[in-house]
Amino acid sequence: MKSLFKKILNTTKKAIMGFMLLSVLLVVLMRWVNPLGSMLMIERKIAHWNMTQQRIWKDWDQISDNIKIAVIAAEDQNFSNHWGFDFKAMNRALKHNQNNKKIRGASTITQQVAKNIFLWSSRSWIRKGFESWFTLWIELTWSKQRILEIYLNSVEWDEGVFGIEAASRHYFKVSANQLTPTQASLLAAILPNPRKWSPVNPNSHIQKKAEWIRTQMNNLGGKYYLDKLK
């Protein structure tokens, strides 16, 4: 019985060490190699096998500064300063969720990249644990520019539409480097629920949020904020 327990324990240790090593190698590799897809894309494909997926990779210099600053303004205004976790935002979300039925998230852009690229989307403490592990290594090995570049190329913007180039063409018939501040703010405004909301037919909530995002873009310093990410 003791020998069986030792075998199980040793196997478990090896599995954990193998996962840790493989995950770190994958993260380090993606510092230079663009991901071919994401776990979110795989998850969506399994759920809707016949759905066509659109995704066209664009490098940092091929993406409009407007959408870069818009998603930061909308999703993670402390992006340039934190190490993957915004504890002040977490505390605000915790207080909000204690008194409101509508749950507010506090995931940083780095955490969203960790989830979209490497993990599954359903909420659980187990996934959050893995997400924290990947977030830590992403922040240690990637630049902030690289994190935002991969985020913009992997985030979902509609059914089967992944990445900013596909979203720009899908909604506005332009390339990602041609997005205006208004278009960028509308795209950023729908990110909490991109399969429900539309930037081309925005309801009053999305219109107000887009206006708020444009104000925040200016308050952050516009494209000059991006100099902090180098």
SSE layout and pairing:
Elements: H1 2-29, H2 39-47, H3 65-75, H4 87-99, H5 109-118, H6 125-141, H7 144-154, E1 156-158, E2 161-162, H8 164-172, H9 181-189, H10 204-220
Helix pairs in contact: 1-6, 3-9, 3-10, 5-6, 5-7, 9-10
Protein model, in words:
- By secondary structure, this protein is an all-alpha fold.
- It has two domains: 33 residues; 195 residues, Orthogonal Bundle (Penicillin binding protein transpeptidase fold), CATH 1.10.3810.10.
- Helix content is 58%, strand content 2%.
- The chain has ten helices and two strands; from the N terminus they run H-H-H-H-H-H-H-E-E-H-H-H.
- It has a two-stranded antiparallel sheet with strand order 1-2.
- The mean pLDDT is 91.
- State the low-pLDDT regions, or none: none
Question: What profile does the largest beta sheet have?
Answer: 2 strands, antiparallel
- The strand line-up of the biggest sheet is 1-2
Assign the structural class, choosing from mainly alpha, mainly beta, alpha/beta, alpha+beta, or little secondary structure. mainly alpha
Number of helices: 10
Q: Measure the end-to-end span.
A: 57 Å
Query: Proportion of β residues?
Result: under 5%
Order of helices and strands: HHHHHHHEEHHH
CATH-derived topology of the largest domain: Penicillin binding protein transpeptidase fold
In percent, how helical is the residue content?
Answer: 55-70%
Rounded mean pLDDT is 91
User: Which CATH class of the largest domain?
Assistant: Mainly Alpha
Summarize this structure briefly.
This protein is mainly α and 230 residues long. It is built from 10 helices and 2 strands. It folds into 2 domains: 33 residues; 195 residues, Penicillin binding protein transpeptidase fold (Orthogonal Bundle), CATH 1.10.3810.
